[in-house]
Design a protein that fits this description.
The chain contains six helices and six strands. It has about 230 residues and is an alpha+beta fold.
Length: about 230
Amino acid sequence: MVQETKEQLELEAEIKQQAQKFLKYLNSTLPESMELEYEGFYRRGFFVSKKRYAVIEDGEIIAKGLELVRRDWAPIVKNTQEAVLMAILKEGDSDKAIKEVKKAFKRIRSGKVDNKELVIHTQITKPLHQYKQVGPHVVAAQKIEEHGVKVSRGTIVRYIIVKGKGSISQRAVPYEYSEGFDYDKDYYIKNQLIPAVERIMYSFGYTRKDLEDMAVGEVQQSLDAFF
């Protein structure tokens, strides 16, 4: 095992050295106003598209375009996606990845997740009366104003989606006034967690239906079946 680690490090050093040589040669052929830079060496990576990916460097996940780096997704969703990526990219542990997903489903279903883990942040980009389509962030902003607080363009609205009747938008409650409300379990599973996890699991053969079944405990398969 020690010998393998040494060989791996030597191979990585050689790859980095060759990359610098190639970069130096390529830059010598480019106009003076152009120059390519070396970004880094990544042992493993996960790519949804060229602008949406995650790589690991020195034990840390570096992500672009994925939910874990966006503020319009709840913390429990971002943390779960990061845990899944860490299990796959750092540890190569498929069983642990699927356990993280099941753990998040179970926590949300319990109804005991703290509201601070469910907060969605969205920026108001224009006066509220100019919105033709009234999304959850607009409804939440309107409810904030009902409490006497002015919401203007540029304001970051924090809200959660709660249980009740009506559309998802109408059930958006500002985080500041969310105490006493029960969050909508189905919304956070179907509209937040599953879409974020699906982007990763799809590559291993899991469909949205598989994840929906897993959320209610109907799927017994291990992710190992797809490796």
